[in-house]
Amino acid sequence: MAFNILVADDSATMRTVVKKTVEMAGVPVGQFFEATHGKEALEILENNWIDVILSDINMPVMGGMELLQTINQDEDLRLIPLVFITTESSEARMDEARELGVAGYIKKPFQPETIKNVLYEVLEKAFQQRIETTPQPAADHDDDDLDF
Amino acid sequence: MDTQLKQLIEETFGEVFETMFFTFLEPINEMPGPAAFVGEDAYIQADISYHGPSAGRFSVYLPRRLAANITMNFLGVDDDEINPEQVLDTAKETVNMAVGSLLGKIDPAGESKLHIPSASELDRLELAEILEESGVLLFNSDYGPLWVVYEE
């Protein structure tokens, strides 16, 4: 199973580094999408299937916190886990992000191993959550219903 | 400059360069005069400021060769594969990471907000002006001296 990943960061270099780090970490990637700020990320989310968002906080136009708030208000998008990769490392900022429902928090500077561990943990949780929220077909059927 | 803050800045910049760019910085405690740096390469200046209960601004002056080298290490590419835009972008990300990480230590309540960093090429480093500042830190690297100026 491969995952579609959206990276939101105003630094093109950082987006490339995150992409390379994810690939090096051995995470199976379907498609990589890139956004330079939160608004651009929302446009991509509207038109594409995304499994996980890796976002900076400090971005022009729309920052990471606002992006997270907007996603949380959308019935469909709120199921997509968002992980912050950011220099904003104060406890208060992390608490604020947790209250808004962030799925993970990676502090810059980071080790490739950290990205791998957080990504796998977040994707596993998201997968479980999707299974739980997807309506299951009724388990019991009358044998007569199965005649074709 | 406060000794504890100076030490934190040195540690934080050292950590960022080592972890992200596999490059070592050596803090220099005795500040030499401008004459000691005659004939240095072109430099890149990267700036970032923050506001909140306390406000400040950091300017980092990286030798062009050092900036190019950390860009190569950061992106995992050879020198002929990088462009000036990527070098400036890496310089911006360097101050963003270092100062963001520093703020996490000196402002654990997270009341200070970082601004968007900027970077530009300098044909010539005006060392006399830098040395006039009170919050100046000097690091040695394999690619020349790196200067950090902190203004509160």
Q: What are the key terms here?
A:
heterodimer, A: 148 residues, alpha/beta, five-stranded parallel beta sheet, disordered C terminus, B: 152 residues, alpha+beta, seven-stranded antiparallel beta sheet, globular
Can you walk me through this structure?
The complex is a heterodimer of chains A (148) and B (152). Chain A has 148 residues and is an alpha/beta fold. Chain A has 5 helices and 5 strands; from the N terminus they run βαβαβαβαβα. Chain A has helices at residues 12-24, 38-47, 64-72, 91-99, 112-133; strands spanning 3-8, 29-35, 52-55, 82-86, 104-107. In chain A, helix 2 runs parallel beside helix 3 (64-72). Mean pLDDT of chain A is 85; it is low at 141-148. With 152 residues, chain B is an alpha+beta fold. Chain B contains 4 helices and 7 strands. In chain B, strands 1, 2, 3, 4, 5, 6 and 7 form a 7-stranded antiparallel beta sheet that branches. The mean pLDDT of chain B is 89. The longest helix of chain B has 23 residues, at 84-106. Classes of the chains: A alpha/beta (148), B alpha+beta (152). Chains A and B meet through helix 1 and helix 4 of A and helix 1, helix 2 and helix 3 of B.
